Amino acid sequence: MKRENLIKNTKENRQKKKQKEDNVDPNKPKKPASSFFRFSREGKKLVEKRSGINDSTINVLVSLKWKELSEEENQVWNNTTVEAMESYKNEMEEYNKTAAEKQNNNN
Predict the structure, then answer these.
(1) What is the distance between the alpha carbons of residues 36 and 63, in angstroms, rounded to a whole number?
(2) Where are the domains of the chain?
(3) Is the Cβ–Cβ distance between 95 and 29 less than 8 Å?
(4) Confidence grade of residue 79 (pLDDT, cut at 50, 70, 90)
(5) How far apart are CA 37 and CA 60, in angstroms?
(6) In whole angstroms, what is the distance from residue 90 CA to residue 45 CA?
(7) d(CA 95, CA 88)
(8) How many CA atoms lie within 13 A of 1 on its CB side?
(9) pTM for this predicted structure
(10) 33-76 confidence digits (pLDDT tens)
(11) pLDDT of residue 102
(12) C-alpha distances in angstroms, 96 versus 23, 87, 99?
C-alpha cells in the first residue's frame, strides 16, 4: 500500500513539474548560478579530464576544493556571481517591461 502511494505521488509530482515547465516563457532570463555552482562547473571540467573517475567522486573532490579556497579566492567567485546577478536583474527589468507592454497591447 505504501509503495503504491509512493509511486502514485511520484507520478503526480512529475506531471505537476512537467506542467510548470510547459508554462515557463522561453524568453525569460535564467537566474545565474551561485558561486559554488560556478566553481563546480569549472572544477568538473578540470577533474573530468582524468579518466576513470565517477561523478560522485568528482563532486566530492570539487566540494573539498571549494572548502579549501582562501578568502581572496572565494571573493573572486562571489564577485562574479554578484556581477551576474546585477546583469540578471537588468535583464529581468527589461523582460518585465516588454511582458507588461505585450499584456497591455492584448487588452
Answers:
(1) 9
(2) 31-106
(3) yes
(4) very high
(5) 13
(6) 30
(7) 10
(8) 0
(9) 0.66
(10) 999 999 999 888 877 677 677 888 888 889 999 999 999 999 99
(11) 76
(12) 16, 14, 5
Sequence-ordered list of residues with C-beta below 8 angstroms from that of 31, at least 6 positions apart, any chain: 88
Q: Which CATH number fits domain 31-106: 1.25.40, 1.10.150, 1.10.30, 1.10.10?
A: 1.10.30
In this structure, what C-alpha cell is assigned to residue 66?
A: 571549494
What is the distance between the alpha carbons of residues 38 and 104, in angstroms, rounded to a whole number?
38
| 24 to 48, 71, 94, 96: CA distances (angstroms) | 32, 38, 17, 14
What cell does 30 get?
535564467
Query: Which residue is listed with cell 503504491?
Result: 4
Alpha-carbon Rg for the chain, nearest whole angstrom, is 20
* Amino acid symbol at 53: I
Length of the chain: 107
